Amino acid sequence: MKNIILSAKDITKHFPGILANDHINFDLYEGEIHSILGENGAGKTTFMNILDGLYIPDEGEIYIKGKKAKILSPIDAMNYGIGMIHQHFMLVDTLTVLENVILGLKDQGIFINESNISKKINEISEKYNFKINPKAKIWQLSLGEQQRVEIIKMLIRGANILILDEPTAVLTPQETDMLFDILQQLKSEGKSAIFISHKLEEVMDISDRITILRKGKVVGTVNKKDITITDLATMMVGREVFFSFEKKPLDTNEILLKIENLEGYNDRGVKTLKGLNLTIYRGEIFGIAGIGGNGQEELVEIITGLRKATKGKIFLKDIDITNSSPSTILKKGVSYIPSDRLKDGLIPNLTPLENSILKCYYKPPIYNRGIINYINAKKYTENLINEYNVMVPLMNAPVRLLSGGNLQKLLLAREISENPILLIAVHPTRGLDINATEFIRKKLLEVRNSGTTVLLISEDLDELLMISDRIGVIFNGKIVGIVNPNEVDIKDIGLMMGGSRYINNKEGEF
Amino acid sequence: MDGISTYFILITLLFSAVKSGTIILLPTIGEIFTERSGVLNLGIEGMMLVGAFFGFVAAYLTNNPYIGFVVGMLSGGLLSIIHAVISITLQGNQIVSGLALTIIGGGITNLYGYHYTDLRLTSTLKNFPIPFLSKIPFLGPIFFNQDIIVYLSYILIVVMWYILYKTKIGIHLRAVGDNAKAANAMGVNVFKTRYFWTFFGGLLAGAGGAYLTIGYAPFWLDGMTFGRGWIAVALVIFSMWNPLYAIIGAYLFGSIDALQFQLQAAGTNIPSSILQMLPYLITFIIITFATIFVRLKHIGVPKELAKPFSREEK
Amino acid sequence: MFIFERRESVPLRLKIMIPIISIIIGLIIGAIAILFLNVDPLQVYKAILIGSFGSRYAFTETLVFATPLILLTSGLILVYRMGFWNIGAYGQYIMGAVFSSYFAIFGSPDLPKFSMLFIMICAALLGGAFWAFIPAFLKALWDVNEVITTLLLNYIALSILRYFMYGPWRDPTGLGFPLSKQFPLNAQLPRIIPNSRVNLGLIFGIIAAVIIWFIINKTKFGYELRVIGGNPRAARYAGINVASKIIIAMLISGALAGLAGMVQVSGVLRVLQIEISPEYGYTALITSWLSYLNPLIGIFVSILFGAFTAGGYLIQITMNVPYGIIPLIESVILFMLIGGEIFKNYKISYLKRSF
Q1: Chain B residue closest to A98 (CA)?
Q2: Given this chain, do its domains A4-237 and A252-333+456-510 carry the same CATH topology?
Q3: Structure confidence by residue, pLDDT tens digits, C40-49
Q4: Residue extents of the structural domains in chain A
């Protein structure tokens, strides 16, 4: 019978406004690969960061080999044999593999015993067939190789519990196979791995057991042998639907936005859009479902002109807007509500008024011969605030002090009041309370009913099902299926999001 | 006859260039390491001033230039701690803090410097030739007939280069400056590292100032660093944060400085004020081109420069 | 252990307390520094008070020293609001003085006063603006670090001044000192308070401060500046041309600094010399910050610092305490101010481990 090597009981963690982990219970056997499955915001990364000592839980305890563990920092975690490989690698690009391995190593004196460490690296490299040159600089390595450096770092420090956070996000299929071989090899030596992912097929492939998280809670822990992929998909996305909204039927088939073969890269140089095709009709709410990191952020940035497309074209009402400047695109009637409100959309230290006029400050009635009419601006802002129910305790306080919900409403108000022809909203209700969430969804339907087209990117499937006219699922940089929310089976969407189901993608088919 | 006198003039010039260059080389190296840890300290001018002044005073009072030099170093180091606390722990605006450091350095030295203005040191640093090396034609008399501080600076460059690229300390330093989050995740104490290297920069800035008043001048005048601290800031960029390249900029500046001195002494037609302008003008031009070059090549700038680090959750 | 914990809002009392505490600590540390000179700090502070507010003349001297500061501070606040680190106010000040002095020295003394002064003012604005344009252009185009460029230009400007003062602009009858000839009557900015050195520059300063306040808070340009300063990404996204704003704002900032230079040489000194109050360049930085980047507050802070300066010169003469004590106190205040910023957003709390 296998021993339990790690056990987490009642782990609870709050962040302002969110309950990220809600009494999570989890255990790990020796020599086991245990996956944690869930959508974005399910609480996976928070839980992992707790195990790795980056966060401290509000409640709950962790036991290693039966003894209570005090993990207050990554070093403590390492001492307990836990080694985490983050989604964004903890590597210094300008240093070599050897230097990154040495970073923080305890039993090294001032002078590097280069040959000693080099030898150890090579030993590990050979054992698992890593093919890593210790003298290479990190920025020269592929992401797959960088990941293997991370694994080497952990193994040299004697880790026997590896935590891998979405490790295949940056890997090619071949590299993924390599990774799985390595994990199997480690497993046969009695080491354990916690594998965090949203990709259903991989999880079914590699795991012994699977724990599913949803909205901060454990939905269940199952043996791989006892479950099917479809069951997993259902558990992952859930079925509750809270609200229902009135939707006017779609009354036109005029094309508003056409995207052809779009290709693009993210900031780390990984190609995240791999030939995306999409057609959106005027007056519809088109929802894009998908786990974060499958290209949706880059898609939106390219449409709004904040990022360059490397291939492909985008047509707004037959006008080619590919790679135009943001202001050109905005002036054509595109409005954008970014997911990071304070970083991209708002100016944190300015007041609500000053933020609300960002799109119209150069036009009458606010602008007049060089001067900004703050009286009109105030009226404008007050109208917006009232219409959108934004709670502003102090009109003169910087917006960064507003709550997430109110910031979002302010942003929404600003962007919608420009009467755009296309409104792009990315994770608009992320982190908001029920009231704000409902308000925003209602507002999106309102603008749709008055003729604005909405492109809605959301990780909340309930939301997409509630208000979209059509839903496209994005996976691995492509749209893998377009469905009618009234008729689709939740399971199918889950499967598509997990990359294991492709619906015959005929444009315009309901 | 003319060729020989030109030869001697050149040697004398370059000999002074090394000394003048050393004044600025020390702070440059110090600031390279400070910035490598992610801290921007624009207060070099202020630290050099206190190093110059207090070093001079100590040397004068003890009649021992070496004690003076050490005191000067420590003065610079002490001043840098103010900047360190504000920049690292209090996460304050590093640019303004550095400027305030410069102002306070000027204020302190002006305040106490009055009584020491017309004094001269009786016991200064002596030059001594290094056997064998000083006999090398041309290079010998320039580089190997200097005082102990210059010799130490040679060693310093090599040692610091070695530390930076060949030791664990250097790895930790570079990691903190390029990816503080990763360094922290691997157990490196980002705060301690930054405090250490900021202090180090302060020590060397103080050393540069002390060398000015003890080894080069040897007297004290209000504000006598006259902007060298700012040239050092520029040289850090010019040397692409590599201590070996710092020599080039420092000695180049030293040569211009020595040249303008010689020209003034020789009574040339070029007004001295124009000559005085040269170092700053040339640095200005260099920094402009260096920026364009660095941007094109994406080299060198420590990615965490002037970004405060906090372990704040989410 | 102690950690910093985010606050939900900025208590008003902190906004007032932090500058006040900064000033108090500055005075305390200044007092300690004075003790090392074997001088009684209280006497020194009393003398500073007397020298700045103790008599009618003292008060006018405070205004005299405040005048260039108001102009400089206003100009700096404009660009600091945009997030552009202009440290070159001193150089722009010098160039303004140089450009305007040219006309005072070589122009005709028979020109009507109004015309001459008008030309000089234009020249000063031009000189300062020109000196500010160079680093602004380099930053706008190639992102060259403006701290270093503006700073180096200070030293270059000083060298240019020295060149003129030791060379072609030196007063031939001046016994070899590096001074220009005394400005003729038509090149002297009129004094506005009898029996004092307070000149028209004070009015210029107050008008400038109000205009800058107006620009920042009421115009489209000012709005765009504040957006750039608050979030350059959002600014670009909203279609604002950041490069052109940098250049225009710096032209204005440099022009004001240049005007301050002209005011100093034409209104106070009535001659061009090398020592045209170098402390102004860096003091203006401190006053800008202490004013929370508000030009109207800047007027009062400038007067306060004008008082420090007036007092500082007095104690130098009467008590043999060198002027350096003033920048010392001023920089301590600045340190406290920057260091105290964090307490507006975070409070110190004690985290007890729940293990």
Answers
A1: B171
A2: yes
A3: 889 889 888 8
A4: 4-237, 252-333+456-510
Q: How far is CA C222 from the centre of its chain?
A: 20
Q: How many domains does chain B have?
A: 1
Contacting residues of C for A397, CB less than 8 Å apart: 9-10
Q: Do C226 and A354 touch (CB under 8 A)?
A: yes
Q: What is the distance between the terminal CA atoms of chain C, rounded to a whole angstrom?
A: 14
Answer with the residue of higher pLDDT: A104 or A79: A79
Contacts of B167 in chain A (CB under 8 A): 110-112
DSSP state of B145: S
- Give chain B's contact residues with A (Cβ, < 8 Å): 166-169, 171-172, 174-175, 178-179, 181-188, 313-314
- pTM confidence score: 0.85
Is domain A4-237 annotated with CATH 3.40.50.300?
A: yes
Burial A340-370 (b: 16+ CB within 10 A, else e): ebbebbbbbebbbbbbbbbbbbeeeebbeee
N-terminal to C-terminal alpha carbon distance within chain B: 76
Best CA proximity match to B97, nearest among B105, B86, B89: B86
**Per-residue pLDDT reduced to its tens digit, C116-155:** 999 999 999 999 999 999 999 999 988 888 888 998 999 9
- State the chains in contact with C (3 or more Cβ–Cβ pairs under 8 Å): A, B
Q: Which CATH architecture has domain A252-333+456-510?
A: 3-Layer(aba) Sandwich (3.40)
Q: Which chains touch B (3 or more CB pairs under 8 A)?
A: A, C
Looking at beta carbons, which residues of chain C come within 8 Å of A56? Answer: 354
How far from A155 is each of A69, A144, A159, A188, B240, CA to CA, in Å?
21, 17, 5, 15, 35
Domain contains B18: no
Q: Give how far A131 is from chain B: nearest CA, Å.
A: 23
The span from the first CA to the last CA of chain A, in angstroms, equals 52
Which residues does residue C265 pair with via DSSP β-bridges, in sequence order? none
Look up the ipTM and state it.
Answer: 0.86
Rg (CA), chain A: 25
Calculate what percentage of chain A has a pLDDT beyond 70.
Answer: 92
Range of the domain at B290: 25-297
CATH code for the domain in which residue B182 is found: 1.10.3470
